[in-house]
Amino acid sequence: MTTGTADITVGSELPPLAAGPITRTTLALFAGASGDHNPMHIDTDVARSAGLGDVFAHGMLSMAYLGRLLTDWVAPEAIRTYGVRFGAVTPVLAEPTATGKVVAIEDVRGERHATLDIAVTLPDGTVTLTGTAVVALTGSTVTTL
After folding, report:
1. Which among 16, 13, 2, 3 has a CA at the least distance from the CA of 102?
2. Rg of the chain over CA atoms, in angstroms?
């Protein structure tokens, strides 16, 4: 369902994106798609030799989920800025959820902009990624639940 952007206010929340479990297949496919074949993400023996229990997801995979959260809400060309900070690893089989909330709305050179706080969180409450994005709302529609 879509709604007009005039309905968007500070405090509006984006529909969450549940990414599903991060499987070894997910990691292998992302490694191939991104060109990031760091063995810490795909080779259990290498991860264990570094003192970890298992492989973990690429940070950029979580960033991609946040990008998808944004583009599920507005058209890609409406994104003005997007940045993140990596906070924790995402273990294999974790089920991350990407979320976003409007924290400010302002007019910038005739365009209505929404500033969003965005994050990826695991079911145990671990926040693996935080960030901000600015999207243009002028002339757009947004997807709602």
Report:
1. 13
2. 17
pLDDT in tens, 19-32: 999 999 999 999 99
Q: How far apart are alpha carbons 105 and 111 in whole angstroms?
A: 10
Count Cβ atoms below 10 Å from residue 132 Cβ, excluding itself.
16
For residue 50, what are the contacts with CB-CB under 8 A and spacing of at least 6?
40
Residue linked to tokens 């365009």: 111
* Token couple for 103: 């924290």
Tell me if the pTM is above 0.85.
Answer: yes
The dihedrals phi and psi of 101, each to the nearest 5 degrees, come to: -145, 140
pLDDT of 144 reads 56
What's the token pair of residue 85? 């900070």
Read off the tokens for 11.
């405090």
Give the C-alpha distances (Å, rounded to integers) separating 125 from 31, 67, 120, 129. 26, 21, 10, 12
The pLDDT value given to residue 1:
42
Strands 127-136, 97-108: pairing is unpaired
